[in-house]
Amino acid sequence: IECATTPRAWGRPWHAPNNPPVTQQNLLDAIADAADVPRRTARTEPGWLNFVRSMRTPVSREMRKIRFHFTDDFVVDDRATREELNCHPTDWATVVRITAEWYRSTLGANA
Fold first, then answer.
1. From CA 67, how far away is CA 20, in angstroms rounded?
2. DSSP annotation of 106
3. How far is Cα 62 from Cα 67, in angstroms, rounded to an integer?
4. Which of 16, 34, 97, 99 has the fewest Cβ atoms nearer than 10 Å?
5. pLDDT tens-digit map of 18-29
6. How many Cα neighbours within 13 Å face the side chain of 53?
7. Residues 6+ positions from 19 with CB-CB distance below 8 Å
């Protein structure tokens, strides 16, 4: 919304502000704790399994091509958005709390 209402922001791409990185496991643990559900272990499919599967399955073959999305760092520089538009991310604690509230109100009774 800030980009749309700020003429100097028009005509260029902007990265949404990001929180400092956390591991997938740490984030899932925080959400599970806030939602008062048991923690689960996050797992990654081993590369060799994907390679073997990709020899027979076209979708797995495509996944092999983009595996770097899951194994390499994904760096986004949001400094311009923060500095020029004064936009900042919602902190992790708030994100987790809101996610847990949504879970309880939407899925909690049925989960």
1. 23
2. H
3. 9
4. 16
5. 998 888 899 899
6. 12
7. 89, 90, 91, 92, 95
